[in-house]
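> forwarded from #structure-qc
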């Protein structure tokens, strides 16, 4: 199964078995939209999920009281990538890590995508090569992303 870590159960919510999940996605609503989440690699059916203050309040099938919810605290929740249809031009960050970073003009490899930092204005690619380079994830700099072929082409400016 193609699982992707998507959040962490950080606490219980109330006494009826609900849990509070800190999502690791673009929005809590994305995570709340699944029929099942995976805990320890096992699918757990969601009976309900709603957004509350940037968290997801979720009720899992079989978890009916606070003791059951406490047993899930600090567990990582995952989603199946097979359950997600991303919009054109959107990618999972996990799929971008490790891609070759290519200078679009010269065609030479400048390094490898080490991380993607989430910033208020836009994400930033962290490229590790001879030195570390930070490149904004905006169309002015990102020419092409080809996950299948294993690269991202960047338009570099003087000083990068």
């Amino acid at each position: 199964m193609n699982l992707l870590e998507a959040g962490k159960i950080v606490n219980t919510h109330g006494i009826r078995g609900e849990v509070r999940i800190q999502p690791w996605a673009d929005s809590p609503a994305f995570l709340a939209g699944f029929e099942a989440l995976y805990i320890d690699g096992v699918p757990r059916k969601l009976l309900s999920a709603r957004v509350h203050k940037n968290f997801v309040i979720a009720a899992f099938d079989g978890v009916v009281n606070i003791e059951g919810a406490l047993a899930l605290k600090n567990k990582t929740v995952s989603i199946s990538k097979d359950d997600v249809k991303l919009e054109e031009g959107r990618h999972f960050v996990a799929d971008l890590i490790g891609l070759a970073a290519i200078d679009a003009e010269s065609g030479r490899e400048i390094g490898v995508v080490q991380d993607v930092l989430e910033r208020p204005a836009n994400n930033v690619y962290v490229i590790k090569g001879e030195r570390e380079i930070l490149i904004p994830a905006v169309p002015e700099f990102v020419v092409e992303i080809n996950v299948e072929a294993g690269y991202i082409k960047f338009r570099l400016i003087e000083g990068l």
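QC bot note: The longest helix spans residues 28-32. Residues 143 and 154 are 5 Å apart (CA to CA).
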